[in-house]
Structures are given as C-alpha cells and as structure tokens.
C-alpha cells in the first residue's frame, strides 16, 4: 500500500498523477477487502476523489483506469473500467460498485455499453414467436438489456435454430439465491425454444484470480454443478463443463481459444478489463476462454462440426465486457456474433452498492443455509436487498416492494412473508440437490451428442 | 482498438519513429542480404543513422530493437531483447542476429545468460557415467552450455532416472539440415541413458506468430513429425505431440499451463521476450505452453502422475529464455527445475549473422532438396556457412574447416567433399522418411504409456 498523502498536485506531471490515482484506487480496494475501519476507508476515498479533481485540472480529462494520460486522448473504448472514472457505476466481471445508494443505474448502463433495452415490443414478440407467456424475469425487467435478440427471433421464425450458453465462476462451494437467477431463466428459454444449452464453469478463472488451489476450484465446480442440475435441466439437452477438464478434452475448443487469442491484443484487454503490466499472463489470456463457447464448433459432439449455429447468452450485465470482445472478434475469424440477454445483478445483504459475493458468508442467503440461518439473515440484515432477490424468484407481485417503500406494508409483515417463502423454497432446493448423484454430475459433464439434429 | 499514434508525418511520436526505425533496419538487412549496390546500402544506412539520432532527440533514449519507446524506460531485465541494444548479439526465440561477421559470440552468451560452459570435465563425466564415448556434438562444442547437468548426473548415479524434452516450431513443411542437430543429439542421449523422450511441436505458437492458418500449422506438424521420426527414434520410448492436439487431449497438461500462467506476469514476459502492448494475448500467454512439458505430471500416461521426475532439455540456445522463465517458476509451483543442454544454432547460407530459417527457400539446405539442388547451393552460396552445418553432421574432422581457413584445403576440393557427403546423407534421410507412414506418425503421437517404470 502506498501512502499518497503530502504531495502537491501542482508540481506533478499527468503521469505522476495517473500513477498516484491508480495506486490510491488499489489502496481503497484493499481497505474495503480487508474490512478496515470506516474512518480509514472514508479518508482513502476522499483522497482518491481529490486526486481525480487534480487530474482533471491538469489533463483536462477524466481519470480512466488502465488508460494512462497519453493514451486517453485517443481511447475510443467506453468499457466499464474506463467508465468507472467520473463517479459513474463501476461494472465489470470482478467489480460492481456505485456511489449511488439506490444501486446501479441500469438505463445509463445500456447507453454506456451500447446495448438495447428489452422493451415491451420485444417481450411481446418473444411471446408471439414462442407461443408462451414471457417469463416473469422478462416481464419485470430482471432481464432488461439485449444484443441482437431480434435477429435471433428472425432466424428462429425461418426455422434456423440457436443454442444457449451461460456459465458461472465457481468461487465457493455454496451458491446463493442470486446465483440461481440466470439458471432459472435459462431453463425457461431452453424449455420454451427447445434448444441445446452449454454451461461453462470457469474453474481456471477462479484459480487465476483467487488464492485457491486448482483442486479446490475443481471441487467447487462439481459442487456448483449439483446446484445447477437441481434447477431441473434436461440431461438430453444440456452439457455442463469445467474449463480445467474440457480444455484438456477438446482440441476443437482449444483451437477456438487460440483463434481468439490471436485476434485480441494486450492493449484491448487493458482497455476492456483494466488489466495491467503486473497481472499474470493467465488473466490476460483468459477472456479468450470465456469467448470460445460462443462458437458452435467448440462443441463438435453437439453441433457436428458446424460453425454457424447462432449462440444466445443469458448472463448478468457485468459479464458483458467478455462478450463485447467476443462480438468484435467473431466476424474476423469467420463466426457469427453471439446474441445476449442481460440481467441486473443481485445486490449483497450489506447494501445495494455491491453485488452479492459467494465468498463472503454473511453477504447472501446461501442455498446451503438452514431455515434458522435464513430467518436470522432476513431479520437482522439489510433486508431491502433481499427483496430484490426474492421477489423475482418467488413471483410475489413486484408492487409488494413499492407497497413496502410507501409504507403500506409493515416491516415485520414483510420479513415474515419473506422468511415463510424462502425457507420452503431453499429447503426444497436442498432436497432436489440431494437427489443429484456424482453419477448424474458425471453424465451432465461428459462431452457427448445431445438430442438435437444440426 | 485503435492505437494512440498521431498520423501526421511531420509531427512524429516516439512510436512512429520507433516503427520507422524498425522497418528501416529491415530494409538495410534486406539490401545487404541481396547484395544490393553499395550506394543503395550506404544511403539506407545513412537514413537509419539519421532516424536513430531523431529518436534519441525525441525520447532521450537510445533505440533498442524489440523495445518500443514507452516500455524502454521501465525495462529492468537484462534478457536478450534488452541486451541486443548496445551492439551485442541478439538471441531470442524469434531473432538471432549479430553485427559480428564471425557470428554470435557464444562465450559471451554464457556469461549473459548465466549458464555454465560444457567443459572437458563435464564431457569426461558424461562418458564415465554413461559408459559411452561422448557424442561428437559434445566433443566438438556444438552443445557448449548447460544448466544443472551435474545435478542430473548425480541423481542418475544414485539410480534416479530423468526424461528428455525437446521440440520444434513447425513453420514450414520442409526441415533443413540444421534442424536435425537437436534431434540427432537427443536420440543419442535417449539411447545412451535409456530414458523417455517427449517432443513438443508448437503449432499453436506458429499460428500465433505467423500469417498461417491453424490447418496449415497442424499439417506442418505432421510433416515435420515424419522427418523427426526418420531420425530413428524408438516408438517405445518417444512421445511426439502437437500442442493443438495435446492441449485438447490432456487435462493434466492444461492444469500445468494454467499453473505457470498464474505465476508469470506481463511485466516478466515483456522483460524476457520483449512483448509489447500491441502483441496479441496468445503470444503473451504462450511461454507457459512451452514451459509445461518440463514437468513430468504433464504426461500422466508416461509418468503415472509423478510430478518429481527430473527433466533434461537439449535445445538450441535461442530457446533458453523460455526455460529461464520455467526454472524461475518451477519451485514456486512445487516442481523440480528442468536441466538444459544448449547447442549453438546453425547460421543461414546468407551469412553467419542470422540463423537458418525454414521459411526462406534459399537460406538453407533442406531435407527435401534434390541432389542437384544440393550441388547448386553448395557451389553457388556462401558455403562457409554450410561447413558449420555439415561438419558436425557428417563427423568430418572439425580441423578440416581450419585447414580450409588456413588455405591448406582448396575451395573446389572442399565443395566437392561437401556435395559428395551431403547428397547421399540427405537422399538416405529421404528414403527413411518415405518409410514413415501416417499410421506410424499416429502411433508416435498417441498419448500412451511408454516402456518405463516410474
């Protein structure tokens, strides 16, 4: 940790200031991670803000992470790392934070990311094309943004099918309820459109980013797969894979990883993900591994070598940087761009400013929690966050939240309802999970043909 | 992403100048190689010198090959890319060049790389331990440098065996005679010590570095494997693998790649290999793939999961940067450091300043050349280079070269001898190569146990 106090900004070059800012950003992050005293954090944040003001005075530009002053003038990237600069929300695969107590402004995010809003017209169209009532996550704006969804539907109407790709970084044994959101929705998409699904568990990523052994990461993968399978996926339509296993089991997958790696420079991942020179080369190359499942010939056992089957990725919006990169590369290596459906992410119990983390025991309601733990967490924690998790999950009217906000619903009553709904829901998930044997996991995770003709 | 350069010629950035300088350096080299008119060469050199002066004015630094302006200031490494700066020889996996017409100074290289000279004492010891006369490449200083070879022999004397790892980047269909050097020597080591051998063909590397398709790189791999097999390797002791195939066939190999990738930063590969921000992420991560075969548990089918079998790598000295990195990482991930035996590399027909390249038709004597082509090349080209290739290969007395240099051997006589020795040697290689069927290649390249108990 560098101490930045006591320097005068006036004499400093833009690069000096840039480096001070970067280092101060690290300091703030470290203090937060280490749960330092609030006063210390506040002081560090204040210094950070002061440095940003100085920086703007000296350079005429906003400070952007990963973009030193000389480069910023021509940087055309509007990625999340860059955007975090001017007090905007910070949203990338490893950091979600906002200075706004109400949480991330998703409409602004759509503009910044250049995606499209899921409007009523699109929801109606999905209902028309599928002949099914749209899922509540679509109707309630949990999935709120998309890329190229109309194109997917155009093709589907002409009998050109597509496949689904989603995933998860297995950073701990236990999932929390927020983690189920993409899987619940993905299952609905799969059932509704009758299409294959691949689920990537990025145990290699977790090994690279966290202080975990390869063995732990792989064990979490198998445990997480059980929770995912417990959501009810059809074994005839679903392939779940660990990167650590599948990379070493599919030359076609690796070929696509190398193709992407050839077409993305360090400059680009620096701009998109904020990587720096002291990051390990594994992190730097990893985005290609998350990109590869977007291309159907990464799964020759499913798509019989076809490289042109359209991919649709339902994921939380913080994963979008990976797929912006993927969509940029795709046409250059002769593949269709994957389409996307973005969900909001689900705030932690500590507050709306960050997303839930599987790594912190008290930040979430976990799928392994006992009824008593659920009761305690809902009763004692900042349960307004819980609401945003639970309401979509249990299909209680969204208005309920507004009732509560307006005072029409009493706190005690709301807590009671939540506990009563959560306890059986999680208990029954735990029951289903118990049914998932090692053998079933193995079956889901074996590369094999699925019940589709492509 | 666009880069940061301005495009006005009058107002050149350091990076503009750097690129102009690099390109002008190439021009000068090409003119010299092609023996252009002296006036043309002089003019090109003068422009080069002028650009160097401009560069120093603008950046305050001396121009360094392979080291773009923004990075030079922070480069802390004394690796090959950096060392090329002050008129020293440039030796790294992609560039071998020297300003000295006699060729690279290998004694200086030993000092700079921090390796040890293969002295008479080591040669004698190898003879004692193996009970065999040392190979002529050892006796004549073709293999001239090592790391930890005494340690390998200490262990071998205590019945602790080791394995061999060598490799090749398949950049074209045809190998030249210089490419056989490491394989001829490796075969001798294998026969002498009766140990397993793994041969890595880095088709992924060639795809990342060259303007080649994945399919071409993989085809070259298979063709090159035939030439390697034709050297006479025992199928019961030898595993040859394509990265593009084996990475996708061995989860254990990929796990070691990720382990190395986690423990090497971009700063480090920048220092060691001269990578820059505009290099693709595949190049940046690749060194881990060349490192992984140094660890025995990358081949569980051979070593039954053991991670502690010592590795010995015979290779040309230009590959050393990869293995300095590997040796740095090894203890941090719980593996023994690989030992090394370094050979000189073999200069091109155009002159002693560069190494032979498989990509230029006239730079070498290829294993596919007809007797007539061999005759023409030896007769017409700068055959003093051929001597340094041929003499070790055919075991003609090394003194022969000194005779020639001293005038005792006439040019015509030397050419005649070379042609007479080369023609049957290459013809017989071609015969042996014809015997190598696709089936044999497949057998060598199938992951399988070898005839050893570990």
UniProtKB/TrEMBL annotation, chains A, B:
Entry keywords, A to Z: Aminoacyl-tRNA synthetase, ATP-binding, Ligase, Membrane, Nucleotide-binding, Phosphoprotein, Protein biosynthesis, Transmembrane, Transmembrane helix
Pfam families cross-referenced by the UniProt entry: tRNA-synt_1b, WHEP-TRS
Protein name, as recorded: Tryptophan--tRNA ligase, cytoplasmic
Domain annotation WHEP-TRS: ranges: 13-69
SMART domains, per database record: WHEP-TRS
Molecular function via GO: ATP binding; tryptophan-tRNA ligase activity
InterPro entries: aa-tRNA-synth_I_CS, aa-tRNA-synth_Ic, Rossmann-like_a/b/a_fold, Trp-tRNA-ligase, uS15_NS1_RNA-bd_sf, WHEP-TRS_dom
Single GO biological process annotation from the record: tryptophanyl-tRNA aminoacylation
Enzyme Commission (EC) number: 6.1.1.2
Family from the record: Belongs to the class-I aminoacyl-tRNA synthetase family.
Residues annotated as transmembrane: 381-401
GO cellular component, one term: cytoplasm
